[in-house]
From TrEMBL:
One of its GO terms (biological process) is cytochrome b6f complex assembly. This is Cofactor assembly of complex C subunit B. It holds the Pfam family CCB2_CCB4. InterPro entries: CCB2/CCB4, CCB4. It comes from Chara braunii. One of its GO terms (cellular component) is chloroplast. Residues 56-77 are annotated as: Disordered.
Amino acid sequence: MLKLKYPFWSVVAGPSPERILCAVSASTRQVLYMDSESSETAGVGMGSNRAAGLQNMGAEEGTGDWKPGLPDGQKGEEEEDWFLANSGLVRSMPLVVGGVGGCLVVLNRVLSGVAPVADASSGQSRADVLSLALSATLLLTGLMWKSVQPKPPVTVRLQGVECLRMNPVLPARAYEELSWAWQLVQKSMRCGGMVVIYGGQCMMQAGTARQSESGSGEAQVVDVPALVNKPICGGVLQSGKANYFGNLPLFPGRVEFDFLPSNTQAVVVHPLGEEGLLILASDTVRGFRPIDQAWIATISEKIDSTLQDVQELQISAPKPSQ
């Protein structure tokens, strides 16, 4: 059993380093990736016993399933939003309050012995009229809230061809880490495609890609020089800030991503330092949650560190004598 430490990840490996069982964020101690056999080793280095280790990693004992988590003592935005979790109850409350309030006002009017005809000179009549108006407003609000329901996220089957392209300049270590990063985002998110661009080259293209127009049946090649000069990707490189398109079909800028499937629903473009981009495609509208975007930022830092080392090695490598 090996326990390896990288700048951003802590790794538990099996009998050999190639057999990765789980990956844990070094800063948050939360699981990034868990293999089907990792339930036997999840407690290694993460707690006094196996169950505590599994709980810290957000995984269920005896399964290969996992749930990305946040540091201890913190809750995700979706977990804290009580109104989002109970939207049906919240939308029904105006109807219930308005209906009960209106009935109580009428019942009070009947039982009080006041004449049923409204008299403007009577204070109780004016109060009853105002109360009925407020009850009617609540009823109308409740009906409007019930009629306007948010649509569930649309999930499609990405149309394209499966591919896994690696730049031949990558050494074995970088090849393994990029492959591993692809497995992480594929297992942990609604991600169907991944492209890594660094130093003006396409280092990796994985997942579902658009079919080439040449009719060869292969994936469309990423035109890196043209892509980095376009508004979206060029803007991310210049600003150093990620850009997220939760509903890509509504954005005219989708034409920049001509290498992704035509029915891609969401895209994240994240910078890799100052020289690269990480592009992830999803088959679901708003497929990347806030917690997913946090993990993407961590994975981007790791990829940037790896590719920066590769670039430095290429620069320092002696040139062959002519």
